[in-house]
Amino acid sequence: MILVWLLLNLMKFTIFLALLFIHGPLVNAQAKPNVLFLAIDDLNDWIGCLVGHPQVKTPHLDKLAARGTLFTNAHCQAPVCNPSRTSVMLGLRPSTTGIYSLQPSFKKVPKYANHITIPKAFKINGYHTSTMGKIYHGALPKGEFDRAGTRSPLPNRFPNEKFVNTPQNHRLVDWGIWPPRNSDQLDYKTADWAVNELSQKPKDSFFMAVGFFRPHVPLYASQEWFDLYPEESLILPPIRRDDRQDTPRFSWYLHWKLPEPRLKFLDEKQQLKNKVRSYLASVSFMDSQVGRVLDALKQSGLEDKTIIVCWSDHGYHLGEKEITGKNTLWDPTTRVPLIFAGPGISEGARCGRPTELLDIYPTLAELCGLKSVPDEIEGLSLVPQLKDAKAARSRPAMTSHGPGNDSVRTETHRYIRYADGSEELYDMRKDPHEFKNLASDPKTKKLRKKLAYHLPKNPAKPVDGSNARLIERKEDGSVYWQNSLIEKDAKIPEYE
Fold first, then answer.
1. What is the per-residue pLDDT for 139?
2. Mean pLDDT throughout 381-391?
3. What percent of the chain has pLDDT over 90?
4. Running DSSP on this structure, what letter comes out for residue 261?
5. N or C: the chain end with fewer CB closer than 10 Å?
6. Backbone torsions φ then ψ of 396, nearest 5 degrees
7. Which residues does the annotation mark as catalytic?
8. Percentage of the chain surpassing pLDDT 70?
9. Burial group, residue 29, by CB count within 10 angstroms (0-12, 13-18, 19+)
10. Extents of the domains making up the chain
11. Is 88's pLDDT higher than 90?
């Protein structure tokens, strides 16, 4: 009997080896879904499917959302590029890493220099990884991808002179019709690279990260994109010119001295319409380049085998709360597009649950069956919501800007607490534009306490080398903007 058993098992093993020789591994690289990872810079909810602006034209992003799941209440972890992108790629909150400002790169922080990032996780799991455009802030960290196209952090062409002389006269803070040709834009070159890569029809499973620069400043786009938004019929965002009367003084510290001008300047120089139009034109141009990449994926024959995730690192104000730019804890900055599409993902679904960019890492890991993913990643997989958009979430979305400045976003409310203890509370159902701060109402005490429960308990101090766009309150109560003291009686720059 033993001999018969041994012979039978020997036969099974022989058959297995034969199949392995003929067909290769039973689970091969191509059985894994590909990933197209699309990052967009400074895009708020002004895309058609999110209805952030009634006139915006983004047919390609809208088409992508229609064939996948759109998260309508998605929020970034930081309202500025470097900490937001670092949070996405490491799967950790700024309040955990201490990376709150434009510098330094996580590679210069010893604790995280060798962290298993999203692209590293895919490399470990046998994927070919490649990238082009802006994925990280600044230079691309070495060793993150198998293959990288050229990456210029800034536009390489500018008009001879700025179109708008802003108060701080920063070279990048400008807007208008430029350049003459679409092909002169960085995003066009990025799309060219991605189209070429996909045209070669990769045989191995791939993780391809494509980062688009627009609508980041300068808000330049060619004439054809401005023609989509005639100035005479342009609709401006909902703005109140006394909107900061009920916000704490500390709210100004988060964007104390920024190159982006205040609403006051745009009103005085009659530039609000021009800037809104320039932003919309930049968004539509970017959308056209996303469309080129998506078309190339379809033509490659790999669309049905590829998971697409599209996201923006943070939003952008265009007059709301009397400012332009980012660096705030309100919806214009924190709310961002987040779309998943591809095999196993519900089509035409809209999920209104509070969602975080932090959730991208564990979601991709689950969808692609990745092993060796760090145990400490802080996001929650969105796979339940990709199967059923109404599936519950166990926590709200949180955004931080410097230690102690945090926002909690639920389906119904936004709660903000600043480092000095001052607060804001908004009923997002009745007041979606966050006009009325309810924090001073005694009736909201219980709700504020409930929401405050989710705030980071012991936020990390800024890592060494932190500076640009850093706000920090010291133990003695003094407040520093980019390591410079803000005097208690100092006038709000370009506002008072």
1. 86
2. 98
3. 90
4. P
5. N
6. -80, 180
7. 81, 137
8. 93
9. middle
10. 30-486
11. yes
